[in-house]
Amino acid sequence: MTALLALAASLLTGLGDFGGGVLTRRLPALAVVVVSQGTATAVLLLALLATGGPAHASPALWYAVAAGVIGPFAMLAFYRALALGPMGVVSPLATVGVVVPVGVGLALGERPGPGQLAGIAVAVAGVVLAGGPERGGPAAARTALLLTLAAAFGFGATMSLLSQASAGGGLLLALFVQRLVNILVGGAALLIGLRGTDTAGLLPELRSRLPLLTCVGLADVAGNAAYAMASHGDSPATAAVLASLYPVVTALLARGVLKERLRPVQVVGAGLAVAGTLLLAAA
Question: Contact, 36 vs 220, CB < 8 A?
C-alpha cells in the first residue's frame, strides 16, 4: 500500500505541475496559484465537513499554518520557472528539495551517511549541468534556475511541515488549513501585485480556464495527501523514493504534448538531479 500511495503521489503531482506550468504561460503565476488552490480548498471543506474532520484539531496544525505560508511562494517560483522552461529540466531540478528533510535530521543530531553525501554531490552536479542555455538566453536560464531551486527548498519545507501536521491523524484538516493559509497569503500578494493594473481581461481568462485550474489544484492536494499517508507507512524511505519520481510524468507530458527538445547536457543534468534525489531519499 505504501508503494501504491507513493506512486499515486508522483502521478498526481506530475500532472498538476504540468497543468500549472502550461497555465502560467498564459496567466499570471500567482493568479494560477490562488485560483487553483481556492477551488481545491472548497472541495476539501466539503470533505472535511462530511467526515467530521474538525474534531482532529490539535496544536500540530501550526505546522500546517507554516506550510501554508511557505507554499504559495514555492508554487509561484515553480510555476514561473516552468513558464520560462523547459519543463523537462525545471521539474527534475525541483526534486533536490529533499535536502530540506535531510537538513532537519542534521539539526536534530543525525549525521549523513555515505549514501546521503553521494546524493548531495550528484544532485548539485545535476543542478549545474541542467542549468544550461534555455530559450530566452542566459538571463532567462539563470532566472529559471534560481526560481527552481527556491521552489525546491520551499517544497521540501512544506512537505516536512505537512508530515508533522498530520502525524497524529487529521490529514484532511491539515490539508485544509494549509490550503486556507495558501489562499490568504497568496491572495494578499496577488491583490498587492495587481494594484493599479487593468484586470478586465484577466477575469474572463480565469473563468474560461477554471476547469483546468480546478484539476491542477485537486491534483496537487491529492498528491500531497497520498505522500503524507505513504510517509506514515511501514517504509518512509520507500515512499520518499517513489514519490520523487513525479518529474518523469511532467517531463514525458512536456515531451509528448509540448514537443520540448533538450540539449544533451541538460538531459544528463536532469537525470543526475533525479538520481541524487533518489540517493538522498533512500539513504
Answer: yes
Query: Who contacts 38 (Cβ-Cβ below 8 Å, separation ≥6)?
Result: 183, 217
Walk along the chain (283 residues) and give the pLDDT tens digit of each residue.
Answer: 777 888 888 889 889 988 988 898 888 888 898 999 899 999 989 988 887 767 667 888 899 999 999 988 888 888 888 777 677 677 777 777 767 766 666 676 666 677 767 876 787 677 666 655 444 455 556 788 888 889 888 888 888 888 788 876 678 888 999 999 989 998 898 888 777 776 777 888 888 999 999 999 999 889 988 888 887 776 666 676 667 777 777 777 887 887 777 677 767 877 887 787 777 666 6
Whether 119 and 60 have beta carbons less than 8 Å apart is answered as no
Start-to-end CA span in the chain (Å):
21
123 with 282: CB under 8 angstroms? no
**This prediction's pTM:** 0.75
Q: How far is CA 120 from CA 20, 124, 204, 213, 275, in A?
A: 28, 6, 45, 34, 10
Grid coordinates 520551499 are at which residue?
154
Cell 518529474 belongs to residue: 247
Cell triple for residue 263? 540539449
Q: CA–CA separation, 245 vs 15, rounded Å? A: 12
Can you tell me which residue has the cell 505541475? 17
Cell triple for residue 137?
A: 538566453
